[in-house]
Each structure stands twice: as C-alpha cells, then as structure tokens.
Automatic annotation (TrEMBL):
It catalyses: a (3S)-3-hydroxyacyl-CoA = a (2E)-enoyl-CoA + H2O; a 4-saturated-(3S)-3-hydroxyacyl-CoA = a (3E)-enoyl-CoA + H2O. The lineage of its organism: Bacteria, Bacillati, Actinomycetota, Actinomycetes, Pseudonocardiales. Transmembrane segments: none annotated. This is enoyl-CoA hydratase. The keyword Cell cycle does not apply. Pfam families: ECH_1. GO terms for molecular function: enoyl-CoA hydratase activity. GO terms for biological process: fatty acid beta-oxidation. Belongs to the enoyl-CoA hydratase/isomerase family. Keywords: Lyase. It is an enzyme of class 4 (lyase). Its EC number is 4.2.1.17. CDD domains: crotonase-like (cd06558).
Length: 255
C-alpha cells in the first residue's frame, strides 16, 4: 500500500486536490502510483481534480529511476503498465483534471501533466521529456500526447534534445494553458476549477471527447461525432436544464 505520498483534500464544493509529496523529487514509483489510484477513488464525487506537489522545486521528476535500475524486463513492463494505467485513468476520468505545476515536470512527470485535461504552470516551472538521455523513450503516453498539444516539430525538438522548456515557452507553444506567477500554480488551478465547476460536467466531458476525436477522425466523421455528442446531451436532460435555467434567470442545477 502507498505510504501516504499522495494527500487528497476537498478544496471547495466539487473540487478536490491531490498533492504529491514523495521527496526528494516526486519520483513516480509504485507508492505514488498506488497513492494516486487511492486518491482518485476518494475523489469519486469531485467534478474537478487538481494534481499538485508540495515537494519544493518539483512537480514530478519522472518515472522512478532508482526502481527501474533494479528490475528485470518483466517487472519493468509491469511498472510501465501501472504508471500508464493511472495516467490513462486521469485522462479518461469522468471529471475535469488540472495539473498545477510550480517546479520540474520531467519524463513521466510531464506525461502525468499531459494526461490531465488542463495544465496551469507557474513561472518557476520547467517541462521536459529527457528519456533519450537514459536510453529510453517517453513510455507513459508522452510520444502521443505531446505532438497533439504542441505539434510534431516542437515535440521532436523537446524529445530528441531532452531539454527543459521554461514555462513562458511552454505557454507560448500550448503545452500549458495558463501561465501564472512563480509559486502560485495550485492557487491559480483552484481559481480555474471554480470557473469550471459551475458548468455542466457531462457537457465538458463531451467537449473533451469530441476535441480528442478530432485528432483521430476524418473531418466529416468528426462533425458526425460532434452531432452525436450534442444529441446525447440533449436527450440526457443537461441541455434542457441549462436552457430552462437561463430563461428562468437562475443558476442551472446540472448532474
Ligand atoms: C523491457 C520491455 C519493456 C516494454 C515496454 C514497457 C514500457 C515501460 C515504460 C516505463 C514507464 C516510463 C515512463 C517515463 O516516460 C520514463 C521516465 O520518466 S524516465 C525519467 C525521466 N526523468 C529524468 O530523467 C529526470 C532525472 N532527474 C534529473 O535529471 C535531475 O534529478 C534533475 C531533475 C535535473 C534535478 O537535478 P539536481 O537538482 O542536481 O538534483 P539531483 O539529480 O541530485 O536529484 C535530487 C534527488 O532526486 C532524485 N531523483 C531525481 N529524479 C529522479 C527520478 N526520476 N527517479 C528517482 N529519483 C530521482 C535523485 O536521485 C536525488 O536523490 P538523492 O541522490 O538525493 O537520494
């Protein structure tokens, strides 16, 4: 069982924060993987989940090099499956996930941030996929998620050099969605969460699914998928509640 390296707390109605606290670098070893799984279980009722870090200077420095250096191929594969498993759970979560990055997000740490729906980075954050410097490639979704966020050329630049990308450059290329002053990423992520939590979560999740489908479907099929998602929401009652609330000049009561 994890040794309490991920702390979950309710920050406000519908908003939970899962804070990584595995010094010295929040290496994403089994304790953090299990801790994140448990925290997401506890955050079942949240509409928005913020992932943050209390380890100074680090969001997460990546997969656990110390662990990887001691295992055989079978255990390495199993470890990778567990790490990808929790990141894919974040990506597919029936809630909105936000990575709040104040420090270094490297390797699996950046892959964790990219598995979230949105990323808030502070001026003190840096981002990178330095796996090639270890004779590896990003193996927890980075080769798939980074090009979708920043484009092929910038993704290759980052992955082939393994360099650290400063927050301002990361924001300019679309790797992070909001750039905030140093040390304020969690506070800013909670402010963003407060904006998000007033809207329809089923509608927001449908937006994410539909935008993600755009990268895999031909345009005409993407348009059809968008219509299908709209129909589902309309039939679910979410749209009826949203439209009615607007006309009755009251806050909507979404699912
Ligand atoms: C066999 C068949 C396989 C089939 C397919 C299977 C797929 C399996 C996929 C596996 C999952 C991979 C996922 C991911 O993509 C891979 C990775 O993330 S690899 C790691 C990437 N990260 C890095 O390379 C960063 C490494 N760290 C650094 O470069 C530096 O630490 C730093 C961040 C630049 C900071 O440097 P300094 O300020 O000098 O500090 P230190 O270096 O002294 O670090 C302080 C302290 O922290 C420890 N530490 C840092 N990073 C890690 C880490 N990633 N893992 C473990 N520990 C780390 C460092 O050792 C120091 O500890 P101390 O010496 O003080 O005990």
């Amino acid at each position: 069982m994890s040794d309490n390296v991920v702390a979950r707390r309710s920050a406000a109605a519908g908003i939970d924060v899962c804070t990584l606290k595995r010094p010295p670098a929040n290496a994403l070893g089994l304790p953090i993987i299990e801790g994140l799984q448990a925290a997401l279980d506890e955050a079942a009722d949240a509409k928005v989940v913020v992932i943050s870090s209390e380890v100074p200077g680090f969001f997460a420095a990546g997969a656990d090099i110390k662990h990887m250096s001691t295992v055989d191929a079978k255990s390495f594969t199993e470890y990778g499956d567990k790490l990808r498993g929790v990141l894919d759970r974040l990506a597919a979560a029936d809630k909105i996930t936000i990575a709040a990055v104040d420090g270094l997000a490297l390797g699996g740490g950046l892959e964790l941030a990219m598995a979230c729906a949105l990323r808030v980075g502070s001026a003190s954050a840096k981002f990178g996929l330095p796996e090639v410097k270890l004779g590896l490639i990003p193996g927890a979704g980075g080769t798939q998620r980074l090009p979708r966020l920043v484009g092929r050329g910038r993704a290759l630049d980052i992955m082939l050099t393994g360099r650290q990308v400063p927050a301002e450059e990361a924001h300019a290329m679309g790797l992070i969605d909001r750039l905030v002053p140093a040390g304020t990423a969690e506070k800013a992520a909670l402010e963003l969460a407060a904006e998000l939590v007033t809207a329809s979560l089923p509608a927001q999740r449908a937006v994410i699914r539909t935008v993600d489908a755009a990268f895999d479907l031909p345009l005409d099929q993407g348009f059809r998928y968008e219509v299908e998602q709209e129909q589902e929401l309309f039939e679910s009652g979410e749209a009826r509640e949203g439209l009615t609330a607007f006309l009755e000049k009251r806050p909507p009561k979404f699912a």
